[in-house]
Amino acid sequence: MLSPDLIDSLFPADLPGPEHWEKRYPPRDLPPGAQVTRFGPSPTGYLHIGGVYVAMVDADLALHSGGAYLLRIEDTDQARLTEGATEQFADGLTYFTISPTEDDLSGHYGPYVQSSRAEIYLSYVRELLRRDRAYLDFATKADLQDITAKQRAAGALPGYYGKWAIWRDASEDQVREKLLAGEPYVVRFRSPGLSGGRVSYTDAIRGELSADDNRNDAVILKSSDQPLRLPTYHFAHAVDDHLMRISLVVRSDEWLSSVPLHLQLFDALGFDRVQYAHVAPLMKQDGSSRRKLSKRKDPEASVGFFIEQGYPAEAVQYYLRGLANGRLAELPLPEALATPIELSGFNAAGPLVDLVKLDDISADYVATLPADAIMGQVATWAEAYDPALAEVLAAEPDLARRVLDIERVDVPNPRKDLRRWADFRPVYGYFFPQIFVPVTDPADDRFGGLAPDLVRQVASAFADQYQAPGPDVEWFNQIRELATQLGFAPNAKTYKKDPEAYPGSIREASQVIRVLLTGSGRSPDLAQVAGALGVDEVLRRIRAVV
RNA sequence: GGUCCCGUCGUCUAGUGGCCCAGGACGCCGCCCUCUCAAGGCGGUAACGCCGGUUCGACUCCGGUCGGGACUACCA
Asked: CA–CA separation, A510 vs A526, rounded Å?
């Protein structure tokens, strides 16, 4: 055990003791059952959709229990900090309307950035040192590698524990000598774990869990050669979650195996243990197996993907909530968003994220929106991600409105052709001559393999006798007539009966017109499209291929 | 290697011993509607990983096994 003098000489003379922090951050005065939660992203990269998932759960639990939810930036790894990450977190969480109930401006439990809490951690490290629950470790990287190698050779478990913990029982003289020589050190927790010991605890999602007790003397304070002395995740977790008076820690299940250590830390520090809820991470199918959604490999792992594609926040939230609690997926969207997420409703296994399902949800959601709302959202999105489209929209707001109204207003089944705002250009862009690219190649794939000659014939026959839609015009008759003349079957059924007798049915013929007019195989009612375009533009597009 | 977690249709899941030769949703396929694409309506497809045990009875309980995943850092 180190002498008090030596220990104190390691810290600022005016460093307050734990009682100071205890007083400064008193227990919260909250109604019974209120949950205090936190989301603690590490600004070492961009926000992961799994982060949004967990943050959403945190915020929802706090909201519905009358508690508090806070965002804590966990930047103890100063070496891996990424420029702009904190701002990106804020943007991403804002997009999904997940906002903390307290922050540096309004909260009493800050600062909410770990690098600003260095002094607090130091107080508790010193306390542990004074009580001999921690010790100084001067092992170098080479020492550590050496230990690992020997353990491997001996078939022992890896780690810094027992007889392998070379500084665990070092004498004060040894420590003084190293200190004098200016050698850097870390502070390690003196684990009370015994060989063969077991721990058990209750996880709010998984129930009773047990594991081998922790025996590893984990590092709690990083190297003394760093300008800012910060703790490791484990120690910061214990100190912060206690002092911020967090009642429930919701985190990804990769932390499950660290729980024994965390429990020891809470106990050694004299803190009440927190309740844990370990959620399974979002997964991705990879060949025949599945793995955690990876930021490196999967574009949809990044929150940016959803924002850039312009997925409506409500649709993504609805999808994520359904993943969290299956029964929410059975509810209509408004109810699902309003119904509290329950810890007991989680599945212990990690779900695969299914973009096809999200698309379906999103299309359904957009179909419920009035044209005005869609216009506003598309315009906002386009300003950031498709400036040319934004310009066109701003120049022709009336056209844009009319376009969005087609088959959306006063119809029993509104079109479901918009899943994300990025769909606007491929789905409706052709209405705007400024951004429309005419189809000029009769062999274009979009014609579905119809003979190029026939494509040309359809186009020129159509153009030659074209009549704009009007009160006295049966617009589609034009197509029907030319289709008959060119030998197309009058309907799909007739064609199906004898496919050899026709080049195709009226369906194929009208698809030629559709593709020429819109550049797409999918569009609203052709007569309405033609009407919106005007005679000149219709003819220009049809003749582009002749 | 060790420890821990997980395992129902392709996917998300319902199911807490008989209501299940397993229900819903998405997907896919087909049919219908329709002058054309969608949308919509109707129908179909498809699963309890495997082996034992407990029980009158097991998707549900127990054991094993296989498979998948996480952790095993001065990363979080």
From this structure: 9
ipTM over 0.90: yes
Amino acid at A356: V
pTM for this predicted structure: 0.92
Residues 270-329 of A with CB under 7 A from strand B: 280-281, 283, 285, 289-292, 322-323, 326-327, 329
Q: Is the peptide bond before A111 cis (omega within 30 degrees of 0)?
A: yes
Residues 17-56 of A with CB under 7 A from strand B: 40, 42, 44
Contact indicator for A240, A230 with CB cutoff of 8 Å: no
The Cα–Cα gap between A54 and A486 comes to: 60
Cα A301 to Cα A59, A99, A296, A298: the distances in Å are: 21, 21, 8, 5
Tell how many helices (H) and how many strands (E) occur in chain A: 24, 11
Would you tell me the crossing angle of helices A259-269 and A118-130 to the nearest 10 degrees? 80
pLDDT at residue A369 tops 80: yes
Nucleotide B34 C1' to residue A373 CA (A): 30
Strand B-proximal residues of A, range 360-399, CB below 7 A, are 360, 364
Distance CA A53, CA A71 (A): 14
Amino acid sitting at position A385: Y
Return the structure tokens found at A342: 């329950």
Rg from Cα positions in chain A: 32
**3-state helix vs strand vs coil in chain A, percent to 5:** 50, 10, 40
DSSP-derived 3-state class of residue A401: helix
Strand B close to A211 by CB, under 7 A: yes
The answer to whether A152 CB is within 7 Å of strand B is no
Residue A505 (CA) to nucleotide B10 (C1'), in angstroms, measures 34
The C-alpha atoms of residue A101 and residue A506 are separated, in whole angstroms, by 60
pLDDT band at residue A541, thresholds of 50, 70 and 90?
very high
